[in-house]
Amino acid sequence: MSGQKSFNVDEGAHLRSCLAWGALAGAAADAALAASWDPLCGWASTAASALPWDAAAALPLPTALALCSAACLAVGAANHVAWSRSLHDGTWVGGSRAPGAAVHGDARLVSSPRELRRLTSGWDAGKAPEGGTLVVGSLDGSLRLLDSVHSCVLAESGEGKSRRVIIPTAYANFLQGRSLVVNDVKGEIRAMLSPAMRAAGTHRIVDVMFDRPASSARFDPLHRPVAALAAEGPGGAVRELRELARCIVPRGERGDAFFTDGARNLFIGVALRMIEDPTIPAESKTVMSVSAAISPLGGKGAAERLDELVASCPPGDPALPFLGALNGERSGAPGIISTLSTYLAEYVDDNVARMLHDDEIGLDRLGEEPTVVFLSSSSASGDYRRLVQTFVAQALSALRTCAAAHAGRCPVETVLLLDEAASLGRNERLVQDLGEMRSERIHVTWVCQSLLQMQSVSGYSREEAETILDLLKDKVVLSCSNPDTARNLSESMGSYTARARSTSRTRGASSDSSGTSDSLVRRPLISPDELMRWTGRETGSLVIRGGVPLALPSRDITETFLGPELGMTSPEAERRLMEAALTGLEERNRSAPPVWRGPSAPGAGQPPKKRIATPGDLGLTTARVALYGAKGARNPPRKRPPSGETAHA
Hints:
The chain contains 23 helices and 14 strands. The protein is of the alpha/beta class. It has three domains: 11-87, no CATH class; 120-219 and 351-480 and 534-582, Rossmann fold (3-Layer(aba) Sandwich), CATH 3.40.50; 223-346 and 601-628, no CATH class. The strands form three sheets. Strands 6-7-5-8-9-4-10-13-14 form a nine-stranded mixed beta sheet, sandwiched between helices. Strand 13 (541-545) and strand 14 form a beta hairpin. Helix 8 (223-232) runs antiparallel to helix 9 and helix 9 runs antiparallel to helix 15 (385-405). The longest helix is centred in the N-terminal third of the chain and has 27 residues, at 61-87. InterPro entries: P-loop_NTPase (IPR027417), T4SS-coupling_protein (IPR051539), TraG/VirD4 (IPR003688). Pfam families: T4SS-DNA_transf. Residues 488-524, 589-649 are annotated as: Disordered. Belongs to the VirD4/TraG family.
């Protein structure tokens, strides 16, 4: 059984060390040989006349010293060769590989520099990358990239995934002219990359800071539905609003499906009613107005406000099919309104509302113009997960629309680099689109800690989490502490035929016997418990590409040529970059826009009459009239009795 190997070792340094020890040994041997040369020559000349000692005695001392030094250096070089062969024998920890036919599998861990150069693209100092979308390690001073469509980076907290993978990957794609959407939770990626990117002047740089809304570029979640309404009519707007509703109202448990679906339909109906109304100012057509339109106001409850909204819709309004079923108390409207209001709270916060209007992002330009978008959402000042999820979902929608408009391929390749992707929650769009957009020049790099995190934090089912990992074909593992994830990865790497030796010993009354037998066994290339001991800092970068595992050295960015190029020369220099990026920001969004609070009530100071939506208004068949009160009109509000009279039941 061999010990754990480290692929982070510098082979050139090991060779130099072996040769240095060989030279030292040669110097010591030369000194000893020079001191004993005369006695050795005398002994050799008289030892035996039958042996050619005379030739040895005639050998000049300088030649003997040179031969001795050369022999010691050769021993050092041979030691390095043996060590290198052991390092690159196709295993990490395990029994020796059996020769001959691989009856139990032939999986190999590719780690030799020659094979790694063939399978990856290079990026040398002062040059642009030769290709590839994902930085997976370094080799002989150059960074190595993998040409990946969709990939997954697995690393525990503190393993340096940002400094070893994410920052180099983002800058490599930037230099190759691709657009980028980077989920930068704490803002450190933007701090390290933004100065160099802005200085290059080749891309449009957009800073979306949900945790600093006063200084952020403005993002309007309703911008795409409004644009779709103008370009395609109500059908296009409904399509975009469905996408937005899935982000705002996440999928509930099976028992909550009624309220979840109802809340989504309610959002679609209110938003559609608002954005299609030309009398409402454009600056007020925001998510905040959707919330205000169904909030209690002027002594009217939420259900009454909804009745009022439905009553304001003309017959045939496309919003009625989404609103009519919620009209009145009997349809579960209070619970549905409460559900939607709860989920809208993150969007209508007075602080973040300052940036959720008058869109400046231009998501429709991502696939047509080189653009870099940094998304920061530190939880230190609030919970912005759904806002980031909304942005990512709409970015995917915009990119796929762009690809459809350009013969199925975006003019500008785009990479979505999603750090801490599990914290974004369950993204229904991502599950659907990963398998379909492989040829559209849209790439996703998903960074998380484990399969368990995708289930417990994101809310994906086990089947969905495994499906996502399968669709993310290329995986980079810096560490893995979850047993289920380790087992899945171990199985994907396969097994090999190992030679096992067993020794038996039998002790009898009059004699003892012992025996040794060799056998061939199946052994996982890297077993789950071994994989849970793998770390990027100590072992290297484990890359699984199409079932073929690669092991590369993994370097911190400051140990590569890229650190000085980005100004990351010391901890103090990095601290200054962070301070420059996070302090002294311009206040661009001082206040939230005016809010539309719903249609005016008919009759000043009077409660609106409750209106029964007819099947004709809703575009429904008579078979569904019962849903809206087929027994007749709902009970109207009781009139106040005249002064001096008593109301009787």
